[in-house]
Fold this protein.
Amino acid sequence: MAADLIEPEQIPLTELDAAFTAIMGEIVATGVAPHYAELARTLGIAPVRAKAVIKRIIDLTPGWLHPGTDYIASFPPFNNQPTQYRVSVDGERRWFAQCAFEALAIRWLVPGQTVTVDAPCLLGDDPLQIVMRDEEILSVDPPTMVGYTHSMVGGDAATRPFR
Amino acid sequence: MNLFRSEEHALDWEEYNPRTAHLLRPVEWWADAFATPMFRARARSDFITWVTGPQGAAAFGELRERLAPPRPDVRATTAAAIALSNVDIGVVDGASPDDRSVERSLMTVWPAAVQVEIARHWRNTARAMIVAIPAEPLPDIDEQQWIETRRSAVRDVQAATGWLARADVGAGDVRLTHRLAQMGWQGEVADQPAWTAMEQSARAVLKCRSLAELT
C-alpha cells in the first residue's frame, strides 16, 4: 500500500504547520475536525498523505485518534468527540473542550471573542460556568470553583483521555 | 482534568489523590497556567515548527515546572498565607500600627519551616492590614459606616491573601487588581485607604512567595 511508504517522521515541518493550521482553523470555524480525505482536498495533497500528516501531528501534540480508527477524537484545546465541557463563543454553543484546563486555552484561538465554558461538577449539583475573553476571566460561577487533576503533565500518550 | 464546585467537592471525588494535592487549584490559577506560551502559540501559522523547536521545549519546561510539586519552603509559605487569611478579624479590628497582637497571633500558626526572612515579610503583611486601614474615619464619612467599611476591608484583605497564596501568582501580576475589583473594590471605596491596604498586603504576600521560591 502507498500509505506504508510514507514515513511520518520524514514529512517536512512546513507541511505539518500548514496542516495543523488548516485543522485548527476548521475546528474553530465549524466545531468539527476534518476527516483526512477532507484535509487532503484543503491542502491539495493525496488522502493517504493527509492521513500520515494527521498521525504525525497527533504524535507531536497532546491529542489523540479514536482507538482503531483514523478519526481525530481530540485536537487540543478542542475535542471532536463530545465531552462534558461545552464551549460557546460569543453566545454560540458549538464546541467541546478536551478537558477543563484546555477549555481555558480556547480564548487564544478566538481573540476578542467571549468564550463561555459550561460544565457539570463531577459530584453533581448545579452546573458550573466560566466566562473569559482574551486576558480577562470575566466570571467564575460559583467563585469557589477549583480545578484538579491527579495526573502529571506529560506521561504516556495512551492515558491522555483518562487524565 | 476536571472542575469542581469547591475544594471540598474535589477532596470528596473518589479519584482524588493526596499525592497530587498541589494540582488542586482555583480556576484562576489554572487559567494562568493555560495562558503560558505553550497554549498561546497554537494560533501561530508555524506552530509545529515552534513546538518542536527550542522555544517549544522551553515552554513545555515552564509548564512542567509550574505543575511540579512545590518544594517544602513554598508549601510552608502557602500554609502561612492561609493562616494569615484565617486570623480572627477581632485581632486586627481596632489594632494600632504598633500593635503586635496580629503578629503574635500569626507566630502561633506559622509553620516551622518558614525561614526568618520570609517570616519578616509575613509580619509586614499583617502590619499593612493595620497601618493602611486607619481606625479613624475619613472626614466626610459617617463613623459607623466607616467602621463597617473597615471591617469589610480587613475581611477582603484576608480573602485576597488566601487567594494569592493558593493562586501562586507572580509579583506584579496585573490580575491582582482585577481580582480586587471582582471583590467589589471599585468606585468610591477604591479611593479610600483600605484599597491601599489591600494592595500593600498583596504585594507583601507576593514578596514572600518570591523569597520562598528563591531560597
